[in-house]
Each structure stands twice: as structure tokens, then as C-alpha cells.
Amino acid sequence: MIPSATTVSPAAPSRAIWIWALLPLVLLAVLIAAIVRLEPAARLRPEGMPPVERLKIERATLAADGIHLAVMNDGPDAVTIAQVTVDDAYWTFTSERSQLAHLGRTNLHVPYPWVAGEAHLVKILTSTGTVFAHEIAVAVETPKATASHLAAFALIGLYVGVLPVALGLCWFPVLARLGKVGMDVLLAVTIGLLAFLFVDAVREGFDGAAELAGAFQGTALFVGAAAVAYLGLEVTGQWLRRVRAQRKAAQSAGSVLALLIAIGIGLHNFGEGLAIGAAFALGEAALGTLLIVGFTLHNTTEGLAILAPIAKERPSIGLLIRLGLIGGVPTIAGAWLGGFVYSRVAAVLCLGLGAGAIAQVVVQLSRQVGAASTATGGGSRSAAQRFATAPVMLGLMAGFAVMYATGMLVG
Amino acid sequence: MPQLSRRSLLKLAGLGTAAGTAALGARGAYAKAARPEGGAGQAIDAMQHAAHTMGPVGRVGADRFNPTTYLRSWNFSHLPPAERARFYRETPRPDGSLVREFELFAVDREIEIAPGIFFPAWTFNGQVPGPTLRATEGDRVRVTFVNQGSHPHTIHFHGWHPPEMDGSLPEHQVMPGDRFVYEFDADPFGVHLYHCHAVPLKRHMHKGLYGMFVVDPKAARPAADELVMVMNGFDTNFDADNEVYALNTVANHYMHEPIRVEVGALVRMYLVNVTEFDLINSLHLHGMFFDVFRTGTSLTTSERTDIVMMCQGERAILETRFRYPGKFMFHAHQSEFAELGWMGMFEAGVRRDT
User: Fold this and answer.
1) What is the dihedral of CA A264, A270, A272, A275, to 10 degrees?
2) B5 vs A275: CB contact, 8 Å cut-off?
3) Which CATH number characterizes residue B156's domain?
4) What residues in A contact B113, CB-CB < 8 Å?
5) Cβ distance A299 to A163 under 8 Å?
6) Facing residues of B112 across strands?
7) Which ipTM value was assigned to this complex?
8) What is the pTM of this model?
9) Domain A55-136 annotated CATH 2.60.40.1890
10) Alpha-carbon gap, residue A139 to A117, rounded angstroms
């Protein structure tokens, strides 16, 4: 016989329930106070043990008056900045503060006559003589947020994000004449393209996460952002469909899907813009014409992806323009943000959001494959059955291959 | 180095032209817009101030170890007589020579080697370099060594001595808390050194266990302003590479506090190289030349030069007279060492007899 639980009666007054709910929290606070006061860990760390020092040079900017460094203490113990060397020479510097507590930040100014186009190695020595180095691979004056620089970044964003997507959208008349098999191939190509972008975003995200200060837990940040984006788009999609069903709008589910794809691609392009802007901001790149050409080719395929779900409908020109802008314009915003207020944390977050958004879109598109070729809709057959046709497989591979090939131009 | 993207822009910098020319001469609207207004992408402002901005920031506290005092101290002459007697005693012998008794102890101590940078050193008598020991050729030297450190140590003297006084073999190691008396005749005359020879040798050296041992010839050298100079380095992050180089431990000390000498007077520098990890070190004196007496074992000069190069453990006596009043820079002619702290100044003044 198992006695039924009667310790807390469901009929107990609500006040008692509140006490039970709060009691563990109060006890937890007492426990934490005891830990802080008694410092049990101190027994494991005898006196004279050197502190754990971890400095992160988050950003180096170059200006006419020398090198500026944004520094963060990523370690558990306080760190005191004692000296700075540039290319193995002690150099004068000024700092807002020399002692940094856990997660403390400061900006250093080193009036060093850096040499344009050459590399410099900056090192910070702490009071214990521990060395933290940061390489400036190519010294280029960091752009300031002047009107001409804003315009330049906007222009790059236009070349790289907006125009290619718009060009891709111009295929609409061709796509509109596709047959059922052609439609499936197109969807498959799009899934291939997006799958590539997903793999790419994950790789970049994890790389970026590894570069983050440990306290930010970059990998969790990336995965969390991806999940938020996936579920967020899922909810948004449901909501859009419900609203449109109520209004009995002429637009079908296809336009909703196209919008979701545009949002996903927009998030992805925002991350790309960040990377471009940041390369300049970090004083590490000289952008060539070839690179812009590469981005442009690469991103033209993104317009195709947005078109695929609405190819069989009659979308207005206005809708196409709106979709193009949603997909492309974030590149400009990303370039501005990356160029002038670059943050590695923001970059990882954006890459995560982009990856999650793309994953959600891939799932959405997959449900459509094969749907057009059967009267009852794709849902009645398993995904494996719908995908296991030669045209779809070829389309998937072609999409992936196109991205791979154009990616080579910029890789 | 941040990983930006698969489109790693960095790699692109290598495409086509060198990055510098790309930055300055790139084609397209962007490149034009990216050029700094009125500049050629250079640190113009910083250049104008460069001469004033080299070297570490701040000053090292001199209350524990003052490199200026160290220059002209030997046989604990910097201590008050009562305290000095604890570490140094001399007893005449019938033949006119002396028995010189020294007390040296090894102790772990954190020392400041550049402003704000503290090095967990192993020291002789709490200082790096250790106290300078000086005797005359033929004197009996008796050094009582007490190891108060946390590791086994020895004292290995350069000079003539029997093998049991060598302080080098495993059985010569003096364990923490133990003591040993080294005894030998001061021979030959010259500028020598002493250092710990416990293993691992490299670590016991670069942690700071070394000092100068000068043996004067029986017929004294001409009177001179004598200076003790030890070229050393510190590996603060233990990567077998020095982060700080110096003359007498403290980076750039003599830049802030020039060595004051007299125009026309004979200046004699006793110079030892105990730098670890780098095979050689050097001393270069601006605006003048000096006579070199390698190892100080001869009274005739072998060389007149303005740069003397030394391997690890090598030493020499340098003699010169300042011809002009004013400041004269001196430093390692390895620019890297110079910019990492091994740089200083002489300031020659005209003597005013009143």
C-alpha cells in the first residue's frame, strides 16, 4: 500500500503556500551569506598563491594619436595593469584605471607611431608580469563615424545585401512559369542554399563564441539566440497565418513563408554586415573590389530563396520590394554597427539569431516540397518519400554547390 | 585575433597587393571614402611625441633596492657599520693579506623590476643582483652561506678553487635551512661573478641568484670612479623569454636617475652579463670610446671600442674619461633589449673646487 501524500493539503490557506514558496529562497540567501563570510574555497588556495589573471583585449583602434585598446578583466581575481609594450618596446600609456575587478573594463591609450599597412603586437603586462597580447595584423586607421564613412558603409551594404537580393527577385517572371516538378526543384535549391548558410552561421558562431571572454559563455549564448529565433519565427508565422485567415486575405501561406525567409536572411545579412564593418573597425582588413564582387554573387541566390514559396502566386511589386528590403537592408545596419560600435558579444548573438531563423525557414520549406505535385498535399507522405526524387535531390545539391562555389570567392 | 567570418576579410588582405598598398590605393568608392581626412593613414600625432613616450610608465620604489646605491657599493659598504659587521669582517694576516668573511643568505623575495611589475625572485640577501663581493688577490675568502629559501641552492664562484668548493654537483646542494662555508684564495685578479648552480640551472639563474665578485690586483689599479654593472633580464611569464631587460635589475632606472660622473676623471666599469635565454648582451656608450679589459685579468687593454659584446657569464672592465659635460646615453645595442628596459644615461659634470 502506498500512502497518499498528505503533508501539504491542497486546501491549505494561500498564505501558508507563500511561506513554503519563499522559505527555500530565504534559506538560500542565508547559505550564500555563509559561503561569502566563511570562504571555504580559501582553504584550497593557500596564501601566496598567485592570482588567476585573465585580461581580454576586446578591441584595438588606430588613430592619429596612437593606439586605443578596450580591455576587460575576464578572470575571477582583480588584475592590475602595470606596463604596455608595442612590438617589444615599453611605451607610455594612459588608462582610465589600472586595477580591474572581475569583469571590469578600461580603455588604454598608447601614443605609439604605428606604421600603416604593417603589423603590430601589443602586450599588456600585469603587476605579476603576466603577459596578454593582441595582434594588429594590418594597421589601418580605424574609420570614425563621419558622414562619408557612414555613406561608405551604406554603399557596401547596398552592394553586398540589398542589390543582390533585388537581382534575385527579378527572376520572378521565370519562376512563375515553372511546372510542379520545377517548383519542387526550386524549393530544393533554396533548401540547399539555406542549409549552407546554416552550416556557415553555426561555424562562425562557434568560432566567435570561442573568441569571447569566458564569462560571456559564448557557446550557450549562440545556441540560446538560435533557439529564440527559431521559436520566435515559429510563433510569428502562426500569428501571421491566423491574422490572415481571419481577414480572408488573398495572400496564402506562401507569402507568410516568404516573409519568414526574408526575415531569416535579413538576420543573417545583419551578421554579415557586422563582420564587414568590424573588419575595418578592428583595424585588420583592407577591403578589395574582389571581395565585394564575391559577396554580391553569393547573396544574389538569397533573393531566389525568398521567391520560392510565392512563385506560384501573384505577389504585388510592392510586396517583392518589401521582401527585398527586409532581406537586404540589415546588411547596412550591420555594417554601421560593426564599423563603429563593434561588440563581439553582439556579433555572436546576431549569428545565433540568424542560424535559428534559417533553421526554422528550412523546416518550413521542407514541408512544401512535394506538396505541389499531389492533390492531397505533401503532408500525407513522409518527408523521406517527398525528398527521395531525383529532381529534389539534384536541386538540394545544386543549391549547396552554388553557395559553396560563390563562397570560395570570399573565403 | 578575432575570427570574423568565413569571409575572413583578413585573408583577403593578402590577395592581389600587399595590405598597405591596398589600404592606401584601393580602387572603388569605398577606398576613397575610407581615407582619413588630410592624412595618409599614419599616426601623425603620435609620431610628434614619440621621443617622449618610449619606456615604461612610472617609477620603481627604491626603498628596498636602489640601483644608484648598488653602483658604488661592495662588501656591504652601503650598510651602517654595526649592521655591516654582521655580513662582512676582515682580519689581517701576517703576510699583509686579509681574511675576508662574508655572510650570504638565499631568500625568496618579490622584487619590483619595472614600475608596477613584481617578480617572484630568489635572491642573495634579499636583492638582485646579490651583494658585490670584493677582495684583493691572495686574500682568503670565507663565505658562510645560509639557505633560507624554499629550494636547494648553492654558490658557485668563478675563480681558482678546489672542487669541493665549486657549489655545482648534486652533493654540493645546500638544502633549505642548511648552511655551508665556501673558502678559497682570491685568485686570479679580475672581474668575476658568483651564482647559484643548483638545478634546473636556468631557473636558478634567471630567478635572480647571482652577483659580482671582484678581485683586485696586489698592485692596485689607478684610482678611479668605480661602477658595478650587471646586465640582467627577467622572464615574468616563464615562457623562456625575457619581458624585462635592465642594467642592475630595474628597467630604465638610470634614464630617470643618470649616473653622475666627472669630466676628465677616470671611470672604471665592472660589467657582467648574466642575462638568461638570450645568448649575448652588449653595452654601447654614446659619444665616446672606452678601453676593454676582458675578464679584467690583464692590466693592458685589449681593445678600444664603443660597443662590447658578451656571452652569458662573460664580463669585462671598461675604462674611460668623459671628454664633454652633459648627458650620454648607454644601452644594449640589441635594440629590443634597449626598448625593454636596458637603457640609461651618464651625466658628466665639471668638478668645481671651492
Assistant:
1) -150
2) yes
3) 2.60.40.420
4) 129
5) no
6) B118
7) 0.78
8) 0.75
9) yes
10) 5
